[in-house]
What does this fold into?
Amino acid sequence: MLKSLSAPLLAACMFLAGCATVPMAPHERDARLKSFTAPAADKSGIYIYRDTFGGQALKKDLYIDGQRIGETANKVYFYQEIAPGAHKIATESEFSNNEIDLQTEGGKNYFVEQYIKLGVFVGGANLEVVSEEEGEKEVRSCKLAYSTFGNYPKKTTDSGSSARISSPSNTAAVNTRYLYQAESVALALNCTATTFTASGPGTEFYSANCGDKPISIRCDFGKCAAQ
It folds into this structure.
């Protein structure tokens, strides 16, 4: 049956179908961010949300300055603190990423809407900066999605060998299968930048920034706790 549908009709069907789901952040973190407290003077806060009727079956990647922050579904938002200045916010679209430029100031929050639009084969996506008043209203009706921004360890490649993750001892085998659980622990403590540091049999270690006090997180077979 699908083969008999024209491309525009197939796109319309996909545009209106189903609902996508993505990993969500802890409720406590979501509640805190909906107070819309201004960030520190040396940081800019960016809320990127999606609340579009069409395209609910579609998931679209988001990027800040080329770094992936996560994948959106309808009625979710992301929050990220970045340095003040010029930034590029990008969204995965139908054929290539769409981008907008955003100039930010320290101590202020900014709101960007990601919206889905009907495409040729599947729905596309685009971005628009909205007012603080409108942004706060829309974010209140959404839920915080899990962000990957700054959470994955950097890869170093040796000549003629596979990419390895550097750790304090440079000998840890890298798996990071428990990254999501470690990040959930960090977010519950209002910490950010969860980073893999080392691993052992069934165990992984992460660090996270909690203001001026870094913490260590240990995960034993998926059960993670701050040390």
Observations:
- The longest helix spans residues 7-16.
- Confidence is low (pLDDT under 50) at residues 1-17, 151-175.
- The first strand starts at residue 44 and ends at 50.
- The radius of gyration is 19 Å.
